[in-house]
Amino acid sequence: MSLATTFSVGALTCHLLDGGSQRLDGGAMFGVVPKQLWQRRIVPDERNRIPLALRCLLIEHDVGPILVDTGVGNKESEKFCDIYAVDNVGHHGPTRLEDALAEVGVQPEAIRYVINTHLHFDHGGGNTVLKGPKGQMGPVELAFPNATYVVQEGELQFAMNTNERTAASYLPHNYAPVAEADRWQLVRGEDEIVPGVRVLPTPGHVPYHQSVLAESEDATLCYLGDLIPTTAHVPLPWIMGYDLEPLVTLENKRQLLAHAHDARWLLAFEHDPEHGVGRVGKDEKSYKFEPLDSPTGDV
Ligand SMILES: [Zn+2]
Q: pLDDT tens digit string along 100-117?
């Protein structure tokens, strides 16, 4: 099965890459939404977990390939991978993300930029890689040795100063080695990383979460990150229990979806188990996900 979905955004070629999957508690994923409702959208397993993709975005750009988010990586213990049902081992590279990159002809050394929406383990876990035989403590190295890594300055600060509520999601081996190698490009607020690729603050899940926009000609793709992790989270009140500031998420969703709807943006969903990319439509009650007829065709 193919590990990449390729489509055009104006003159830019983009790929959604299969970085594997994980399972998280369904109740935590849907916050105050009753199970009676959410289990019709995504069916939980016997441990009440729902399947989630780890879908990364690769933008082919004149400056070199740009990777957005990096999945879970290969540094976590067996116990950790069992709790979250992490399924991301690669056949050729360390993880499925490297396999997917190989499928579109990109070596890790070629990646010019890595942009993290935020630094939770399932978004920045593949920033670094454990070298050496499995089960042995090898050195942790940058997974993309020639890349500049981009994140909001506030997010890196936030990740370096965890508390009892946030610590389980922020694992320093995913971002401290990037700091040690002096490879962070820290941005503040909305910023253009290279022509046609912008980061847009979309806080709520965490205080300095950002989404990523790829814009070319009249087309725009928005990689939502955890602002709207799956297509089931498109309706405004369907907000994760994990979000630290759910009412901030709500207002950012309201603003972004209004814009995405009116401007016919393409939206990329990082964690949706089924749909990688689509648009939003609207009826009198709420926004609705609209899949693309042909993900490989003219979008
Ligand atoms: Zn997150």
A: 999 999 999 999 999 999
Task: Check: CB of residue 89 under 8 Å from CB of residue 99.
Answer: no
| 134, two tokens | 């499995």
Bridge partners of residue 277, in order along the sequence: 268
Is a pLDDT exceeding 90 seen at residue 284? no
Residue 217: other Cβ atoms inside 10 A: 11
Domain total for the chain? 1
For residue 97, what are the domain limits? 4-291
Say how far apart CA 29 and CA 126 lie, in whole Å.
22
Question: Ligand 1 center to residue 144 CA distance, Å?
Answer: 21
What mean pLDDT is predicted for residues 223-238? Answer: 97
- What is the distance in A from the centroid of ligand 1 to the CA of 111? 23
**Distance from the alpha carbon of residue 242 to the mean position of ligand 1, in angstroms:** 8
Q: CA-CA distance, 248 to 48, in Å (whole number)?
A: 27
Beta-carbon neighbours within 5 Å of ion ligand 1: 120, 226
- For ligand 1, the distance from its centroid to the CA atom of residue 226, given in whole angstroms, is 6
How far is ligand 1, taken at its centre, from the CA of residue 124, in Å? 9
CATH code of residue 116 = 3.60.15.10
Residue 154 near residue 207, CB atoms below 8 Å: yes
